[in-house]
Amino acid sequence: MTKVLGLDVGSKTIGVAISDDFGWTAQGLTTIHWKEPEYKSVEDTFKQLIDEYTIEKVVIGLPKNMNGSIGFRGEASQDFAKFLVDTFSVDVVMWDERLTTMAAEKVLLEADMSRAKRKKVIDKMAAVMILQGYLDSQS
Where in this chain does the record put each YqgF/RNase H-like domain (predicted)? Predict the structure, then answer.
């Protein structure tokens, strides 16, 4: 099985997670800093990730409103998905990520992590939770 990339796309950072070879577990990989919507600014980074890990599928968190509608952040994530498909010809799955960032924050709080450290890893942790949710749904 090829590895799957998981993304938590924000306006300033993109949390990145990757699956293991079997598609069972998600691990945090990195946090990419960018200025939305300057896709060119992250094109080389994503080319490198996709090539290095032989990525054919990307799971992107789709932040929906609690009523299920898609707001500005959700549209921004869909736009990013379109960029990845158009640029790299990868399959993209949009994954409902409601509450993912809050769940990640809770895990880090329970780990007694300082606010400064939480801020550095929260997006990566959210990407892990998005990807793990997807992987669990596939088994």
Answer: 2-104
